[in-house]
Amino acid sequence: MRKLAIGTIVAVVLIVLFCELCTVVAKPYQKILLDRFGKIISHPTRICYNWFLCYPTDRVIRLDMRLHLYQSDNREVSTSAGEPISIRTFALWKIVDPVLYVDRLPGGTPAVQRYLDNKIQSAVLKQIGHYTLDEMFNVDVKKLKMQQAEQNIQKKVDIGMQSLGIDVVKVGFARMTFPPDVAARVYQRMTAERNKIASEYINQGEKLAQIKIAQGREQATEIRSAASKKAAIIRGQADASAYAILNSVQETPQARQFYRFWKSLQLFQNSMGNTTYWVLTPNNPVTEPLFTQLKMVEGAGAKSLIKADPRAAK
User: Fold this and answer.
1) Burial annotation 192-223 (CB, 10 A radius, 16+ → b, else e)
2) What does the alpha-carbon distance between residue 52 and residue 22 come to, in Å, rounded to a whole number?
3) What pLDDT is stored for residue 305 in this prediction?
4) Using one digit for the tens of pLDDT, what is the confidence trace for 45-63?
5) Which of 254, 35, 74, 32 lies closest to 174 in space, CA to CA?
6) DSSP string for residues in the chain
7) What would the mean pLDDT of 273-279 be, rounded to a whole number?
8) Would the pLDDT of 285 be above 70?
9) Is residue 85 domain-shared with residue 169, that is, in the same domain?
10) 277 in Cβ contact with 268 (< 8 Å)
11) Does the structure show a pLDDT above 90 at 90?
């Protein structure tokens, strides 16, 4: 029983030592290489998924096959006109040939970052010197040449990268600003350009406004003329209708009698003053229409009273 226990312990220790010294486990995004006495083993013996067999003397090299980011510091460069700008660049790269990568860049990622820094900054200095400041900073997209500059820089950087076992996927500008002494001048120039464009829009708007106002006034005049003409026609028709009604009324005996009565009242009103006294008699030809009209009015009043209250006739 004791021998069985000792044997079990020894077996467990041997298994642990074997797993620790003779196997290696890689993460899904890692590539495993073995340095066996200076010789690179690119395809180690696989035990199972991401679990490889190695010798205790092998040096395990783990390579990250994902995209790597390079980002530079702010560097001051000059345009074709000698105007300084501050640029920060970035690059995305990945390992495409692990064996070549380990052989040419034994320092790993830090060595790649240093190599990219030297090569990218050299390409940036040369390319930015071919462009003006307006081609780097402009609100008009058609005048910008930033994308073209990035493509030219990437072409320069791609030269010789395959021989290092890496591939530069993307090179671009992460940040582009002005030094403080240049920023004020650039902003003033951009403000002047924006003000000029705004003035052009304002002038065009005022010109269109004057045209619209003139058209509106012309239309208003036409509408007023048409309305006045129509109103005159309606007034003429109304006056004709009124005169026709007056003429038809004035031709009746009642109208003549009322006219005589009204003229008599006007005569009295015009001839009498504050100290004038008139003696009204029915035989006087001047005052006769008054008595005649009064009798007619009294008769009409009596008739209307009888109609309103039949008991008044009794």
Assistant:
1) eeeeeeeeeeeeeeeeeeeeeeeeeeeeeeee
2) 9
3) 37
4) 888 888 888 888 888 999 9
5) 74
6) -HHHHHHHHHHHHHHHHHHHHHEEE--TTEEEEEEETTEEESSPEEEETTEEE--TTPEEEEEE-S-EEEEPPPEEEE-TTS-EEEEEEEEEEEES-HHHHHHH-TT-HHHHHHHHHHHHHHHHHHHHTTS-HHHHS-S-GGG--HHHHHHHHHHHHHTTTGGGTEEEEEEEEEEEE--HHHHHHHHHHHHHHHHHHHHHHHHHHHHHHHHHHHHHHHHHHHHHHHHHHHHHHHHHHHHHHHHHHHHHHHTSHHHHHHHHHHHHHHHHHHH--TT------TTSTTTHHHHHHHHHHHHHHHHHHHHH-GGGG-
7) 67
8) no
9) yes
10) no
11) yes
Sheet holding 59-64, edge to edge: 39-41, 30-36, 59-64
User: Which of 130, 161, 177 delimits the end of a domain?
Assistant: 177
**What whole-number distance in Å separates Cα of residue 59 and Cα of residue 38?**
9
Domain limit, last residue, from 152, 177, 202: 177
Tokens coding 111: 């060595």
Residues 159 and 76 reside in one and the same domain:
yes
Bridge-based pairing state of the strands 30-36 and 59-64: antiparallel
For 232-247, write each residue's pLDDT tens digit.
Answer: 999 888 888 888 877 7
Tokens of 104: 């040419």
What range does the domain containing 21 cover?
Answer: 2-64
Q: What is the number of domains present in the chain? A: 3
**CA torsion through residues 63, 66, 67, 71, sign:** negative
Instruction: Please enumerate in sequence order all residues whose Cβ is within 8 A of that of 286, keeping only pairs 6 or more positions apart, or say none.
Output: 264, 267
Q: Pick the more confident residue, 57 or 304.
A: 57
> In this model, does residue 94 exceed pLDDT 90?
yes
pTM score, whole prediction: 0.57
Nearest 5°: phi and psi at 50? 55, 25
Q: Which residue has the tokens 């040449």?
A: 145
